[in-house]
Design brief:
six-stranded mixed beta sheet, Mannitol-specific EII, Chain A, 157 residues, 5 helices, alpha/beta
Length: 157
């Protein structure tokens, strides 16, 4: 599996985004996902994320959400991350508001890769100390650096 760093570029990481609620946050992260992908329309991305949210919230709990979707014609998996200025209701599993969002898009024909990426993101965000460091990031650059340098824990035998 490729590192999380391979999903993101600095232009797709925003620290301190102001969003009034889930729809506005999803709109913004949809626009971010199009950065560096000229043939990708934000409306198509937003439709994919909203379709997935209709089947159940991607709010994991502990203030974290991983909106995701699969798109036909997408060449590679891509990601975007935002830390919200103020936590918003995301209908998360624990009913806590969300302040960290990592959006993931994968090619439609890659369901196995989709699940592997989601598992890796879940592992990343289950690290309470790491999530605290993300929340303490002072700017986009620091948030990007933290994400870029994160590595999954290796299973010990």
């Amino acid at each position: 599996m490729m590192p999380i760093a391979s999903l993101i570029i600095p232009e797709r990481v925003v620290c301190g985004l102001a969003a009034s609620g889930k729809p506005q946050a999803l709109e913004h992260i949809s626009r971010l996902l199009t950065q560096g992908v000229p043939d990708l329309a934000a409306t198509v991305v937003l439709d994919s994320l909203i379709d997935r949210e209709r089947s159940g919230s991607t709010g994991l709990g502990r203030g974290i959400a991983i909106p995701h979707g699969r798109l036909p014609g997408l060449r590679d998996a891509i990601g975007a991350c935002i830390r919200l200025q103020t936590a918003i209701d995301f209908a998360a599993l624990d009913n806590r508001p969300v302040d960290l969002m990592f959006a993931l898009l994968v090619p439609e024909e890659a369901p196995d890769a989709h699940l592997q990426w989601l598992a890796q993101l879940a592992q990343m965000f289950s690290d309470t100390l790491f999530a605290q460091r993300l929340r303490a990031a002072r700017d986009d650059r620091e948030l990007y650096a933290l994400l870029h340098h994160w590595e999954p824990r290796r299973a010990t035998a």
